Amino acid sequence: MALAPATAYDLTDEQRAIIEMVHEFVDNEIIPVAEEYDAEDKFPEPIVEQMKELGLFGVTIPEEYGGMGLDLTTYAMIVEELSRGWISISGVVNTHFIGSYLLMKFGTEEQKEYFLPKMATGELRAAFSLSEPEAGSDVQSIKTTARKGDDGRWEINGQKMWVTNGLGSGVVFVLAKTDPKADPPYRGMTCFITEKEPWAEQNTGDFAGLDIPPKIKKMGYKGVESTELVYNGYRCPPERILGGEEAGLGQGFKQMMDALEVGRVNVAARGVGIAQRALELAVRYAQERKTFGKPIAQHQAIQFKLADMATKVEAARLLTRKAARMKDAGQRSDLEAGMAKLFASEAGKECVEEAFRIHGGYGYSKEYEIERLYRDAPLLLIGEGTSEIQRMVIGKKVLERNRI
Ligand SMILES: Cc1cc2nc3c(=O)[nH]c(=O)nc-3n(C[C@H](O)[C@H](O)[C@H](O)COP(=O)(O)OP(=O)(O)OC[C@H]3O[C@@H](n4cnc5c(N)ncnc54)[C@H](O)[C@@H]3O)c2cc1C
User: Fold this and answer.
1) Which residue among 6, 79, 193, 319 is least enclosed by CB atoms within 10 Å?
2) d(CA 271, CA 15)
3) pLDDT tens-digit map of 264-321
4) Is residue 384 among the annotated active site residues?
5) Which of 141, 231, 382 to probe ligand 1 with, by most ligand atoms within 8 A of CB?
6) Half-sphere exposure of 267 (CA within 13 A, CB side)
7) 221 lines ligand 1 (CB under 6 A)
8) pTM of the entire structure?
């Protein structure tokens, strides 16, 4: 199916070819089966295998490491399409994308050469772990520690929470306190690249000391697993500190906050995708369903809902692309990424709710796709920083940039 003009208005030829390919993949391979995987909360292995073949795990990884070497803007467009199909699919690539960003920006040459080629093909998938049972928004309050042993390796102890791809990943970028007395605490935090056996609940051998409890049961965002990670005496070699021990020790908080900036563009793109799908479903249903002798699309109250939804989708898309383009141009985009994430995730939730209302009683039935979207959309308000946290970031940056 051709791309809608609103999606395609400003694409380069290369972007158009890729986005058309992903759009078709989503229509043919994801949307028809998403309901089945959602109902069973089953990992969509065949879809993930096809994504590997399409190169979607290496979109932003440079060609010299086997990836496509594309920019954040193109990646955001791809994520928008994947999320239009099912946000869980974008969840499979999201933490992987953040992990590859961390390696590309801060990794040593050895770390890049070791991890990126396997990540580009999707053979190795990455997870990203900041949150803990008692720490989410307030990242500086994490309790997980890493202590250097006599043999030079770092022993990690602590419990992590809400790790997307926590079980299936082969590598986790994890934040731990290496200097618990540091003041402010962020100066004593380090990012460790912890390898593990994909899909193993208990790791052994070199990876012993990392256990993964049963996956967390969720209201939506099914198929992709969210887990705790229990580090209990896991021993990490010093060369697996992001950036190397000398340069990377104590830099973890800054590195991971940097990665969250691109992560926010990524979540914004997911908001655009789910909002776009809600609009598509609502526009179709409104022309099929009749009340009082005419399609409900002919009632002005319904047209106004469609108008507001279409406007929000477009605004969210523009904010997202602007934030991505600024980052690609090497400009500071923390404010813009925060705005895009806030607006697009809220637009996602609002458009899904309006589409749900337009479906009347049928929106409440599992027979209709909108029911799944209604359970999926709220996640976007939480992940990569809640809406309240985005407002804090935006408010601070607005004042910083406009001091009197
Ligand atoms: C499905 C799912 C997948 C996830 N995947 C990952 C992952 O892969 N890796 C990872 O590290 N984390 C992940 N997370 C965790 C997510 O990032 C956190 O849930 C999020 O940052 C919020 O933290 P919290 O849940 O601890 O809420 P809290 O920080 O406890 O916040 C609770 C409420 O208080 C508000 N609040 C907090 N502080 C303030 C303040 N200063 N001012 C005003 N309001 C405030 C929040 O906005 C929220 O409404 C995931 C979460 C979910 C649900």
Assistant:
1) 6
2) 20
3) 999 999 999 999 999 999 999 999 999 999 999 999 999 999 999 999 999 999 999 9
4) yes
5) 382
6) 31
7) yes
8) 0.96
